[in-house]
Design goal:
The protein is of the alpha+beta class. It is built from 9 helices and 10 strands. It folds into 2 domains: 143 residues, Ribosomal Protein S5, domain 2; 127 residues, Alpha-Beta Plaits. It is 42% helix and 24% strand. The chain is globular, with a radius of gyration of 18 Å.
């Protein structure tokens, strides 16, 4: 029996644009998913296509137990965390000797297949290694992790990442003259953010711009915008949709002593708030205890 955990993630900048070779900045966050894999002749995978793909691709059979602190279909990278932790647990249980790098790459290829060929390696990289990453054109660069105070607001509206990616692709096909400049502008915001990673106030303003640009490519949701406005009104440096959008979560970058107030405002507007910060560890072995 082998138990592994892997962290969730938030996109600070650049979601959706990364699918088109633009840059993105993402960070691992504290909620984790815990996965236990056991050799067994009786297969028990549940219904997750990600887990099924992990066992199939590794060519083994077994049973799995999952305990997740990351809400699913919320934009916090739960499917990548499950995939990474499952591969790490299979790797250990069946003594396959894969490196961390190989697990990250295999997790990305599984995520990409399940999401019908369109995905960036962001979620799987962040979940594998922890910390903060700059992602561009399928490559990742580790950034010095920043001690940001983040408040996540879960709109509790479930969404499908695959569907949201399709929506942007449809808009890009139908109106390239509108969609492409917006993706370019998201790139501009991300590159500007890279210059101000140490300056939360400036970064917050750029998050506000990124939120508006995500709305412009059709992945906003009125409930997300309500939570974003509530966070800004209660003292956040800035706030935006995070992840695929159309529901799921927003994040606010906050001064430390405003976190509780912002979380309270998010709850008043019927979101679920999570106060969090960077998780510098990627997947790790847990005590089977
Ligand atoms: C999903 O969290 C973010 C997207 O950019 C897809 C991806 O990067 O794989 C929409």
């Amino acid at each position: 029996m082998a138990t592994y955990s892997a962290p969730g993630k938030v996109f600070l900048f650049g979601e959706h644009a990364v699918v088109y070779g633009k840059p993105g900045i993402a960070m691992a966050i504290k909620p984790r998913v815990y996965v236990t894999v056991r050799k067994a002749s009786q297969v028990h995978y549940g219904k997750s296509p990600y887990i099924e793909a992990c066992f199939r691709e590794m060519g083994v059979r077994g049973s799995i137990y999952i305990n997740s602190q990351i809400p699913s279909s919320s934009g916090l990278g739960s499917s990548a965390a499950v995939t990474v932790a499952t591969l790490a647990a299979i790797n250990d249980e069946y003594e396959m000797g894969m490196t961390r790098e190989e697990i990250a790459d295999r997790a990305f290829s599984i995520e990409k297949n399940v999401q019908k060929g369109r995905a960036s390696p962001t979620d799987t990289s962040v979940s594998t290694y922890g910390g903060m990453f700059f992602i561009m054109e399928g490559k990742r660069r580790r950034l010095a992790p920043q001690n940001y105070n983040l408040v996540i607001g879960n709109s509790m509206i479930s969404h499908s990442t695959t569907r949201m990616i399709e929506l942007v692709a449809e808009m890009r096909n139908k109106n390239p003259e509108i969609c492409n400049p917006v993706l370019d502008a998201i790139e501009g915001v991300t590159m500007e953010a890279m210059r101000y990673l140490h300056d939360s106030q400036r970064l917050g303003k750029l998050m506000d711009v990124n939120h508006a640009l995500l709305d412009a490519i059709g992945v906003g949701h009125p409930v997300l915008t309500r939570l974003v406005l509530a966070a800004r009104a209660t003292g956040a440096y800035g706030a935006k949709t995070t992840g695929a959008g159309g529901g799921g979560c927003m994040i606010a970058l906050a001064p430390k002593n405003f976190r509780n107030r912002i979380a309270g405002a998010i709850e008043v507007f019927e979101g679920r708030a999570i106060i969090t910060s960077v998780d510098t560890e990627g997947f790790r072995k847990e005590n089977d205890g």
